[in-house]
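Hi R.,

Here are the chain sequences for the assembly we discussed:
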Amino acid sequence: MGLPRPEELISDVNLKKMPSKPWMDTLPVEFKPGFYCYGAKAKNLAYVDMPNARDFHVTDPDWKLPEDWKKIVLEGIKQRIERFRTFHVFMDICVRCGACADKCHFFIGTGDPKNMPVLRAELLRSVYRKYFTSSGKIFGRNGGARELDLDVLKELWYYFYQCTECRRCSLFCPYGIDTAEITIMARELLNLLGLNTDWISGPVANCYRTGNHLGIEPHTMKSTLEFMCNDIEDITGIRIEPPINKKGAEILFITPSGDLFADPGIYNCMGYMMLFHELGLDYTWSTFACEGGNFGFFTSLEMAKRLHSKIYEEAKRLGVKWIIGGECGHMWRVWHQYHDTWFGPIDFLEEPVSPITGTKFEHAKSTKIVHISEFTADLIRHGVLKFDKSRNDNLIVTFHDSCNVSRGMGMFEEPRYIIKNVCNHFYDMPDETIREQTFCCGSGSGLNAGEIMEQRMRGGFPRANAVRYVHEKFGVNLLANICAIDRAALPPLMNYWVPGVRVSGVTELVANAMIMKGEKEREMNLRMEPLPGKGGE
Amino acid sequence: MGIGLALISVLGLILFAYLGTAVIGLNALFAVVFPYAAFIIFVLGFIYRMVQWGKSPVPYRIPTTAGQHYSSLWFKQNKIDNPSTAWGVALRMFFEVFTFRSLFRNTKAEILQGRLYVGSSKWLWLGAIAFHYSFLVIFLRHMRFFTPETPWVISIVESLDSFLQVHILGSPILYITNLSILAALLYLLGRRILDPKIKYISLPSDYFPLFLILGIITTGVLMRYFFKVDVTAIKELTLGLVYFKPVVPKGIGSLFYIHLFLVSILFAYFPFSKLMHMGGVFLSPTRNLANNNRMERHVNPWEYPVKHRHYEEYEDEFREKMKKAGIPVEKE
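And here is the predicted structure of the full complex:
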């Protein structure tokens, strides 16, 4: 990775020392390699009709902005102030008490004061004050206001693509000021000028065309699932035929596309198919609605809506009754907090009822979307599934609460209940680092790019630090989670900070322990490694 | 940044009031005109700001959830920190407004020898709660100046505030809130100066209200305990304001006018400043909405249709590949 050794990486961080220059005087911002994502490509912006499509190179002095860029930004601010009470109130009521300051994983990992949530917000607030408040107009800098110029714009870009929208700060704010909301607004403004990153705009364009971020075409998706089924057959002796685009199925299943592609998400995907097969569930995959994640959400709310419109359209076309969503973080924030407003009323689907247990998921009666962990926990509670927990005996497990599911939904018990039912060894990390206080993986909201590895390793330090604690204390060697970005981001984080800890989804653990009807005696886990007692540890 | 500017501004205001009354003798200006003007600015300004915020709609329901959610499963919901009903929201807001629940959650992060330590930290909460409640009690106690007969509620507040029954050097009975608000203000000011992080983010508008309120409290304390002022004359003045029959009694010293002027400034400054967090906290959508998103639809008044890809276009692009792979299609 070309990074310093872990013990050296954060040796330059001093949370108690601030620069001698006031923060308004530290421009222009220095684009440090390892801390910023590459700029968006013209073709990806153009494909989804984003403005000012051109190849954007961050370190070029000329950002090739439209001539009236300043007017565009200021009108954009005005429009959002009038449209979002969140943004309006959050721009006005911060008292700079500093409660949020040391809550941000990026501030803790970098010591950069502009990574304090309060200051990240002030970067934009200062512009807002200058043009939209009387105190800013009259008192100028003494009123905390500053002119919008190119240097300020570049600073906004740099720091609003250093926020993972994890909302940890908003938990501690006495007024609930939510930096994620401010970042969403700031990124919308930046996107009015075509200032996106390659790692977000590429997946957005892919998702628009193929239905998923990775650009997997329908036939490839089918063969990918079939490859997984080959492995499942090798492991269990059971042949599964995954239903694809099946009309009239009862349930549409959608998971983030990371589960179709990358290790260790694929094991989770195998787990979903094994679970549904064992239940005899009447469900279907869709090759069109094949992405639960939504990188549009890291671009603009409009783009998020454009990308997720396919979900209900496809549910309607296939004639399903309701939808189960796989394990993913920001996907669930979007599904939970935005879907019904965007796409409702969803009167062409039925209120979800588990066909296996009869449980009515009344809390999902309007959106008709149930989380796989809710579905699985209910199955376990009803004793529908049989487990051989000893198959997971080599695993000493801890659970990472994904930010969005935690602070944008509040699902803490379901995954823990599941894990404890399929694993014998489970230990939680310290209270200040889990559940609603969970620390981000450091790579969310489109920041999982390879070119910002240093920022990610620094931002993931608080998470890794807590894992290291349970690793040393209890011998924890597996970090379970219910988020596709986590499954992509945590393995490098663990390799760097806490070698010896692996990463998995929760459903992988379920399927590994689940005793399937007619299965052969299993010798291997889903990763095709020997099971404990079968030549394994 | 800006601590000097804020201090000089407040000292300037004090000097202005002193010169205006003791030297030039424009007592009526300070006793009548400024208080009325300040009160009007406060009321209209406060309403204006709330209306402005209220005019911005709440397009999405995005509470910050801080506990286990409600679901049809058997897990116990945290009804206060993750409410799913209006009653739950009311409880959450009650604890937020009256006990500063989010601030009570505060922690402190420290890095020692390359390891991160996160521990509980209640000092900010304590300082904030001490300041706000002391201010509230002092504000209520002052109602005796604006009512001909002191209401019994106010008398109870006064007696509670003075239950220590202490007299300093034969002065009137000591109010606990006089001590607690000074301690809290000095703490809040102190951390802005001594904590490098807080110092770095502080604006002149963060120091100004602290110095202003310190000035108000100091002049009030001086009048009560150290320099005897003519309370009867002052009450004549304040009641005159209430009954819209303003009078400017003789024998009221500049100390009182400085006090009154700083209070007037505080009222007039309020709607244009961060002090509006008092109203804003009630309008914060991450706190005042129920997390019932999948049960009840939230409507966005300005939602508009967006261009998106339809299945037909998708199938048109991939039909041959889909057919070859044996995936069902709409049009053969």
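Chain B touches chain A through 105 residues (CB under 8 Å). DSSP finds 13 helices and two strands in chain B.

Let me know if anything looks off.

Best,
T.
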